[in-house]
Design goal:
single chain; 503 residues; alpha/beta; Aldehyde Dehydrogenase, Chain A, domain 1; Aldehyde Dehydrogenase, Chain A, domain 2; 2 domains; seven-stranded mixed β-sheet; six-stranded mixed β-sheet; 17 helices; globular; binds nicotinamide-adenine-dinucleotide
C-alpha cells in the first residue's frame, strides 16, 4: 500500500476526469445525461469538496434503460454459457487492471479506509470469476421420470432485472448482485446509491470495454424516490435485487406489488457477538473489535451488540475500552487509518444522535462519543456500556463505529437477548464448548452464523438474513434461483390413456 501523498497524487487525474465529464447514465451502450438535463452534486466525505455532477435520472431514463435491457435480453439469454463465461472473465481481468483507480475512487467517494478498500476491486473481480465459472451450468436441471412421462426440468433467465444498491462498499456489492444476473443470462438496469455513484459508472464502462454487448447492463443514476421508485414499478423489469435499509425494502415491496415483482432483499442488521467465559478471549476481542470498527461500522454484518458473560465482563471491557480509544481515525487514503469519515453529513448526524439517546436511556459512553471538530464527517469510535437490550441503542441499526455492550449471566439469557431484535442477519458465537455451540447456533435467529470466527465470506455459501434482515439468499447456486425460472417439460414415453370427454 502506498502512502497518503502517493495515493492522493494517483487519484488526482481521475478526479479531474470525473469533474470534467460528470457521472452520466449508460443506456444501450451510450453515456447519456438525464433526459431532463438535471444533475445532483456529489461531494467527498473526506473534506466535503465537490467531486462532480451526477445525472439525476427519473422515470423517462428508467424507461429507456428498461427498454434497452428488454431489447438486449433475447440475444444475451441465447448466448452460450461458455461465451458468457468468457466475457465475465474478461470483465474480471479488466477490473483487476484498474484496481488502484477503483480503490482510490471508492475511498474518496465513501470515506472507507484504503486498508480495507485496496482489496475491493479484487473481491469484485473474484465475484465475476465465481459466477463466470457457473454460467455454463446455469440452465442445468433434473430428469424426473414417471411411469408415462420423461419429465425434465431446466432453468431459464427471468428477463431484465433491476439492481438497487446502497452506499456502503458500493463497488463490491454491485459486482455481487450483477455478476450472477449476467451469468444467468439476465439483462440489468442498475440504480446505485446517490451518496456514492462513482464506482458504479466505472464498472459498467469496464464491462462494455471488456466486450459485454450494449444494453445488457444499463446504469441509471438518481434518487431513490425518483429513479429507484420508477425502476421498481417498471412493467418490463421482472425482478428487483435490492440491498439497503429494511424500511426501504418494505417500500419497494409495495411499489413492486402492482407489477408482481419478484424481490430479493438484503437489509439491515443489529447483529450480536456473544462471548462466553470459556472462549479464547484474546481472539474474541480481536474479532469483536474488527467486526464493528472496520469499514467505519457501515457494514450490514457488523457485530453492533456485544453480549458478554458477566463473569468475564469487567476484564474484557477494560481491554476493549483501551483498544477502542486507540483506533486510528484519519484520512481514508492514509494506509495507517483504521476509520475514515462517514458517508454523509446526514449519516453523521444520525450516528451522533445516538450519543444523546444513549445518555438519556441511562447507558454510559466509555469511549468516544463525539464527532471530530474538523472538516469531513469524522466520528470517534464509540463504546456504550451499562446498556440493556430494550434500549434504542440495542434495538436500532446505528450503522457507524458504535458498539453497545450488554452483560448476561446464563446461556438462556444470552439467547433471549440475541434474538430479541427485529433483525436476524448474522451472529458471532465465542465458546469452546462444542455442544453449547451446536445448541446455541440452532436456536439463534440469524441467516449467517460464525463460531469462533469473524465474518469470513466463502462464495459458495448462502448469504442473507431472516426477519427484518432480508428475503432470499445469494451465493453458490442460490443467486441463480433468484435470477432464473424453473421450467418443467413432460415428454410422453408411450401412448398412455388420455381421459376422453364428449365421446
Ligand atoms: P437505503 O435503503 O437508504 O438505500 C439503498 C438504495 O435504495 C439506494 O440506491 C437508494 O437510492 C434506493 N432507494 C431509496 N428509496 C427507494 C425507493 N422508494 N424505491 C427504490 N429505491 C429506493 O440504504 P442505504 O442507507 O444506502 O444503505 C445502508 C443500509 O443497507 C443499511 O441498513 C445496511 O444494513 C443495508 N445493507 C445490507 C446489506 C446486506 O447484505 N444485508 C449489505 C449492505 C448494506
Amino acid at each position: 500500500m502506498s502512502d497518503l501523498t502517493t495515493n492522493l497524487a494517483t487519484l488526482l487525474p481521475h478526479l479531474d476526469r470525473l469533474a470534467a465529464q460528470g457521472v452520466q447514465n449508460r443506456i444501450a451502450g451510450r453515456r447519456l445525461p438525464a433526459a431532463s438535463g438535471q444533475t445532483f452534486d456529489n461531494a467527498s466525505p473526506v473534506d466535503e469538496t465537490h467531486i462532480c455532477q451526477v445525472a439525476r435520472g427519473d422515470a423517462p431514463d428508467v424507461d429507456a434503460a428498461a427498454r434497452a435491457a428488454q431489447a438486449a435480453f433475447a440475444d444475451w439469454r441465447d448466448t452460450s454459457g461458455a461465451e458468457r463465461k468468457k466475457i465475465l472473465h474478461r470483465i474480471a481481468d479488466a477490473i483487476e487492471a484498474r484496481a488502484d483507480e477503483i480503490a482510490l475512487c471508492e475511498c474518496w467517494d465513501t470515506g472507507q479506509a484504503i486498508r480495507f478498500m485496496s482489496k475491493a476491486a479484487l473481491r469484485g473481480a473474484a465475484n465475476f470469476r465465481f459466477f463466470a465459472d457457473r454460467a455454463p451450468g446455469a440452465r442445468d436441471g433434473q430428469a424426473l421420470p414417471s411411469p408415462t412421462l420423461m419429465n425434465v426440468t431446466t432453468r431459464v433467465p427471468i428477463g431484465p432485472v433491476g439492481v438497487i444498491t446502497p452506499w456502503n462498499t458500493p463497488f463490491m456489492l454491485s459486482t455481487w448482485k450483477i455478476a450472477p444476473a449476467l451469468a444467468a443470462g439476465c439483462t440489468v438496469v442498475h440504480k446505485p446509491a446517490e451518496f456514492s455513484p462513482l464506482t458504479a459508472s466505472l464498472l459498467v464502462e469496464i464491462a462494455e470495454e471488456a466486450g459485454l454487448p450494449p444494453g445488457v447492463w444499463n446504469l441509471v443514476n438518481g434518487l431513490g424516490e425518483e429513479a429507484g421508485k420508477a425502476l421498481t414499478e417498471h412493467p418490463l423489469i421482472r425482478a428487483i435485487a435490492f440491498v439497503g435499509e429494511s424500511r426501504t425494502g418494505s417500500t419497494i415491496m409495495a411499489q413492486g406489488a402492482p407489477t408482481l415483482k419478484r424481490v430479493h432483499f438484503e437489509l439491515g442488521g443489529k447483529n450480536p457477538v456473544i462471548v462466553f467465559d470459556d472462549a479464547d478471549l484474546d481472539r474474541a476481542l480481536d474479532a469483536a473489535i474488527f467486526m464493528i470498527y472496520s469499514l467505519n461500522g457501515e457494514r450490514c454484518t457488523s457485530s453492533s451488540r456485544l453480549l458478554i458473560q458477566s463473569s468475564i465482563a469487567e476484564a474484557f471491557l477494560e481491554k476493549l475500552r483501551a483498544r477502542v480509544k486507540n483506533i486510528r481515525v484519519g484520512h481514508p487514503l492514509d494506509p495507517q487509518t483504521e476509520i475514515g469519515p462517514l458517508i454523509h453529513k446526514v449519516h453523521l448526524d444520525k450516528v451522533t444522535s445516538y450519543f444523546d439517546i444513549a445518555r438519556n436511556e441511562g447507558a454510559r459512553i466509555t469511549a468516544g462519543g463525539a464527532a471530530l471538530d474538523q472538516p469531513g464527517h469524522y466520528v470517534q469510535p464509540t463504546l456504550f456500556e451499562g446498556a440493556s437490550n430494550d434500549m434504542r441503542i440495542a434495538q436500532e441499526e446505528i450503522f457507524g463505529p458504535v458498539l453497545t455492550a450488554i452483560p448476561f449471566d446464563t446461556e438462556d439469557e444470552a439467547l433471549r437477548i440475541a434474538n430479541d431484535v427485529p433483525y436476524g442477519l448474522t451472529g458471532y458465537v465465542w465458546t469452546n464448548d462444542l455442544t453449547r455451540a451446536l445448541r446455541f447456533t440452532d436456536k439463534l435467529e440469524a441467516g449467517m452464523i460464525w463460531v469462533n470466527s469473524e465474518n469470513v465470506r466463502h462464495l459458495p455459501t448462502p448469504f442473507g438474513g431472516v426477519k427484518a434482515s432480508g428475503i432470499g439468499r445469494d451465493g453458490g447456486d442460490w443467486s441463480f434461483e433468484f435470477y432464473m425460472e424453473q421450467k418443467h417439460i413432460g415428454f410422453a414415453t408411450g401412448h398412455h390413456r388420455i381421459p376422453q370427454l364428449g365421446t
